From TrEMBL:
Protein family: Belongs to the metallo-dependent hydrolases superfamily.
Keyword Hydrolase: yes
Species: Anatilimnocola aggregata
Protein's UniProt name: TatD related DNase
Segments passing through the bilayer: none
Superkingdom of this protein's organism: Bacteria
Gene Ontology MF, one: metal ion binding
Amino acid sequence: MDYIDPHIHMVSRITDDYETLARMGCVALSEPAFWAGFDRGTVDGFRDYFRQLTEVEPKRAAQYGIQHFCWLCINAKEAENVSLSREVIAMIPEFIHKPNVLGIGEIGLNKNTRNEAIVFLEHMELAIQYEQQILIHTPHLEDKFQGTRMILDMLTSDRRIDRNRVLVDHVEEHTVRHVLDEGFWAGMTLYPVTKCTPSRAADIIEMYGPERLMVNSAGDWGPSKPTAVPDFIMEMRRRKHPESLIRKIVYENPLQYFSQSQGFRFTPRDASETVDAR
């Protein structure tokens, strides 16, 4: 089954992983800007990183027939440095119209601090100014519920935000309902240890249905598995769910959400016409 991974950090993966993803059926992926495994100290470090996301990774992916899209931001782990964050936000417009850029993300909270919230709101303003979609990072473990609530409050307090163009990621059983009830898209990240597992994600689908829900692998610097979406497909098949339902979650939902972005020019494997939001 063809699938789209809506959130995977390929800069942290070896090239063999692209080949494996292609063999598993991955036809497209989106890579949010994130932490590089260490805190960067200058705006030029982020400029080079954005060049990697917009120039290098699309070429690596294309070698295996995978279309690569990305998002731009300074992530929540580094947002405590407000002065650097503002330099990065001011630099993002240099890249925002690159052919594979979908929007601003993954922005959000890490430790739910005042500085993180300031940087989050300034990213929101940038997204509104440039009419960009938004991808949200919610905190980990014990900070997740509080951080998710803080993020939803900031988003819903601004009437300019189009909720159908916002994806709130890393939802779990105790946060997914709040995200969906507010009219946002929700993403479930499938990790071996933290966040969701394929089994838990299948449980959530059975509880809430498939509307505005996606699954992703993240595949970042910690323990992760880039083929977690195929694991979810197998779990859904084990539970005897119809192929049409599985395809909606792993292919049609990402396609529907990303198609709202001017940077999403996607050519399906079984069609000659390009999906272009422009």
